[in-house]
Amino acid sequence: MYIIEKAPAKINLTLDVLYKRPDQFHQVEMVMTTVDLADRIEFFLLEKDKIKVSSENRFVPNDERNLAYRAAKLLKERYKVKQGVRIKIDKQIPVAAGLAGGSSDAAATLRGLNRLWGLNLTLDQLAVLGSEVGSDVSFCVYNSTALAKGRGEDITELPAPPHCWVILAKPVQGVSTQSVYQSLQLQDLDHPDTEGMIRAIKQSDYQGVCSRLKNVLETVTLPKNPEVEQIKHQMKRSGADAVLMSGSGPTVFGLVQQESRADRIYNSLRGFCEEVYVVRLLGSQQRLD
Ligand code: ATP
Predict the structure, then answer these.
(1) Is 136 considered catalytic here?
(2) Digit-coded pLDDT (tens) for 141-162
(3) In what order do the strands lie in the sheet with 275-280?
């Protein structure tokens, strides 16, 4: 018996860091949504008590360091599952890109194994479990649009933003999320208008969403990675309505409403950026199905 789950990438429409907590995590406020660029994960039921993970992508670990493995192990231990699973990840989301690829694989694993092992857990239960695997996993469990607070695990779902096209461009050099947070200077940050972004989404106000894209982690990643700034500049020049770095980077995304404009931006980037994608903004599980 086997089943398939899609694990879509996320982008940050806002990313704010409020303060450093006594437990050393940063208190964040992020509005995130999903895009139609997804890993495809197959789950094969094993009668033996084993978890095996495989992926042909050389940057993805095939052992207990894989977040999908960790999610499976946690679920298995917590609910005393006797069966095992073989997890095959077809990686489409760039790795270490700020698109939460690993977290989305972990979330898809929770959803997939909930079905495969017949556990009947709710998404809310899976999201709580996911927060033990990683900060972005809870968000990814819902595959929707949400405000994430706390260290990312406190989720309030939002409606899907207005339909648009998203151009994603990933510079060659990956970025370590941990080191970006370590280098962040909390004083003098220019904070995003998170409330305004939520309002714009609720009103389906595309211009309002565009005008409020903001990510405080750009203050760390941009000066260290000139390619990110170049890509932002090029996207704007070739007609993107708004442009931002996602997560800790280095992936940059641009929003447009017309497909022809998305194609123009895609072509203008192909010259100096190897990994460029044009995808739809999803924003809800229904649009993924
Ligand atoms: P985030 O946006 O949540 O910070 P990211 O998109 O920057 O995440 P990932 O693609 O999740 O980063 O990868 C970060 C690291 O996690 C990789 O270098 C990789 O070694 C490890 N990793 C573990 N499991 C996975 C997985 N299933 N897919 C990709 N990377 C994984």
Answers:
(1) yes
(2) 999 999 999 999 999 999 999 9
(3) 242-245, 252-256, 165-170, 275-280
